[in-house]
Specification:
heterodimer, A: two-stranded antiparallel sheet, elongated, B: mainly alpha, two-stranded antiparallel sheet, 1% strand
């Protein structure tokens, strides 16, 4: 039962950290040149990811993780 | 009422507030002194962490750096925020469950080794000390530029204030002061930004104004690109493909370094529960993001304002602030062709204006004609940023000495009272030492900050991650990984930093990676060495496996 909790936690980590990597190192750096051909208002898109978007996504990712883990804690009766 | 009056008033009021909080929140036990009894509400801890994290550099220098680097400045924005995702997901909850006081505590117990604890404690002290000297310098600079107080006296006032609340209150005093300091610094940073965004684009939210049209119907960034090209610079939003790999590695080193910095990690020991540690990291990053998403907007607005004001202006007709900042040396005009007009261009031969990057935040209110009290606010904010970070770092140094060195290594029988006194004495010594170093900052201080992040990334980060996620990781693996990672990173930085006497030349960089980004490679080496050595040596003892098992579950 406990093992399941840990595996599920690792599963969440893999997904969230993949998004973390794609949005910052991907959209903000490696693919930024390509994305700069598109615009978000006055922002070239790659530039926006590098200086704004990635940071918003970081914040959202943490709150999603908190939500998922609180639910998981409850389900496995591990809520303190 | 002039700016000087407002500056004295606002600095005076905020300093009295910090002292008041210190008296109210005195620490009575070592647990209060080290981790505020683990009783801090997660939202408050988030604010304290944000203030702890955002230093004089974030407040005063970062927007200016971005304003001169354009897209290239993004490495600091992503690098100094992305680490919190790692902290929240991979470190904070488990370290909170472990429930001790310091990072060397975790390393020492998880790897059942006094040597591991000692290496960790040396790294922790080194990283924190280099960092704190920079803060003291920030305090001195803020005082001397705005209050016409000599630099040295400014540093001494700063030491006095930190001494008072850190020695008295320990982590408890520091935490509540940091909460107040966060409020001061974020208010001070956003108010001028809102004004400037309104002036330029009519939109009060800088994050949106940044991507909006200016009064003449052209997008702000397009205008800035055009102005930059006209003066011979690269376009502001353009990406330099030649340095992209370096941007990648610097961003990574800053992120992993953030997640390995002891003064940040220790903040998550101060909340009551595991779930609080997770959400507290979320609050911390949310509070940090208010400044970090505003800074690039300020950078762009300030650059446009500056170019419009000074480029091709007659020197005899420049606004008063220009002369004021010339006196401080942050602006230098050298009329090379003696035509009385300021030529600000990319070409070094023709350019007549030298601008210190810090001016983009410091002089911003004057450039944009904001009211005098806004200038006072900037000073109070800069001081809050420097003092809050300094206090957090000093606490790490003192706990490392009184707890890790004295209690765990030298004299385990020391009484609770004795340890509390030792903690107070060591923080007092650390404050004074940092102040002295700040009075006479060795020229290499700015350079060693790169080392601080590199070391945190190449030593602590892998050791902690493996300690949580890999039960098979043993003493031999972690120790050899840390040693190889740290030695590699340190040698590389010393070799390639001319300011540290290194002979290395940029064209010989490994894969084109500059010293600021090499921590990433050091970290990868650490991981590889740790994994290989651990598999070739004897397995982890049973009781350690149980320890790892226990920190993985909140209850």
């Amino acid at each position: 039962m406990k093992e399941k909790y840990w595996q599920k936690n690792l599963f969440y980590l893999r997904i969230l950290l993949t998004i973390w990597f794609i949005c910052s190192f991907g959209f903000g750096i490696l693919l930024a040149e390509e994305l700069n051909k598109f615009y978000l208002g006055g922002f070239p898109l790659g530039f926006w990811f590098a200086q704004q978007g990635s940071i918003y996504i970081f914040v959202i990712l943490i709150f999603i993780y908190v939500y998922l883990m609180n639910k998981l804690d409850k389900k496995h009766n591990l809520k303190e | 009422m002039d700016a000087q009056f407002w500056t004295y008033l606002l600095v005076g009021v905020t300093f009295s507030l910090y002292i008041g909080i210190a008296i109210w929140s005195r620490a009575q036990s070592t647990k209060e002194f080290y981790v505020a009894s683990g009783g801090i509400h997660p939202v408050l801890n988030g604010m304290a962490t944000a203030a702890d994290w955002m230093s004089a550099a974030s407040f005063i220098s970062m927007a200016g750096i971005i304003s001169f680097l354009g897209y290239g400045g993004s490495q600091y924005l992503m690098g100094w925020t992305g680490g919190y995702v790692l902290l929240a997901l991979c470190l904070a909850p488990y370290l909170r469950k472990f429930g001790k006081f310091t990072v060397p505590d975790f390393i020492g117990e998880r790897y059942y080794s006094k040597n591991a604890r000692t290496i960790a404690l040396i790294c922790a002290i080194f990283v924190s000390f280099t960092y704190v000297v920079g803060q003291m310098k920030g305090v001195g600079v803020a005082f001397s530029r705005f209050l016409e107080i000599p630099y040295d006296l400014g540093v001494i006032i700063g030491i006095g204030i930190v001494f008072f609340y850190a020695v008295l209150g320990g982590m408890k005093g520091i935490t509540y002061t940091q909460v107040a300091q966060y409020c001061v610094l974020i208010f001070a940073f956003t108010v001028p930004a809102i004004f400037i965004s309104l002036q330029a684009t009519g939109n009060p939210i800088p994050q949106i104004g940044f991507g909006s049209k200016t009064m003449d119907g052209v997008y702000l960034l397009e205008k800035l690109n055009q102005l930059s090209v006209d003066l011979g610079f690269d376009k502001y939003t353009d990406i330099n493909q030649n340095t992209l790999i370096n941007v990648f590695f610097i961003t990574a080193a800053l992120m992993f370094g953030t997640a390995g910095l002891p003064h940040v990690i220790v903040r998550f020991f101060t909340v009551p529960k595991v779930r609080d540690a997770r959400i507290s990291a979320g609050w911390a990053l949310l509070f940090i993001s208010f400044l970090y998403t505003t800074a690039p907007a300020v950078a762009a607005f300030a650059k446009v304002n500056l170019i419009n004001t000074v480029s091709n202006a007659k020197y005899s007709e420049v606004p008063k602030w220009f002369k004021n900042w010339e006196n401080t040396g942050l602006l230098q005009f050298d009329d090379k062709n003696s035509d009385g007009i300021i030529q600000y261009v990319a070409d070094e031969e023709i350019n007549e204006l030298t601008i210190d990057r810090d001016i983009m935040v410091l002089a911003n209110p004057e450039i944009a004609n904001l009211p005098a009290w806004v200038i006072g606010l900037i000073v109070a904010g800069g001081l809050a940023a420097a003092l809050s970070t300094a206090a957090g770092l000093l606490l790490v140094i003192s706990t490392s000495i009184s707890h890790d060195l004295l209690k765990k290594n030298i004299n385990p029988n020391i009484s609770e009272k004795g340890e509390l006194w030792a903690a107070r004495i060591s923080i007092a010594v650390a404050v004074v030492a940092a102040g002295l170093a700040g009075l006479n900052p060795p020229g290499f201080v700015a350079e060693v900050v790169a080392l601080a992040f590199g070391l945190a990334a190449s030593s602590f980060f892998p050791a902690i991650i493996l300690g949580i996620f890999d039960k098979r990781m043993n003493k031999e693996g972690a120790l050899s990984g840390m040693l190889v990672g740290v030695v590699f990173t340190t040698i590389y930085i010393f070799y390639f930093k001319p300011q540290l006497g290194g002979p290395g030349l940029p064209q010989n960089y490994l894969f084109g990676i500059s010293p600021e980004g090499i921590g990433t490679i050091g970290m990868i080496i650490n991981f590889i060495v740790s994994l290989i050595v651990s598999r070739l040596t004897k397995p982890t003892p049973e009781n350690i496996k149980e320890l790892v098992e226990s920190i993985r579950y909140p209850k």
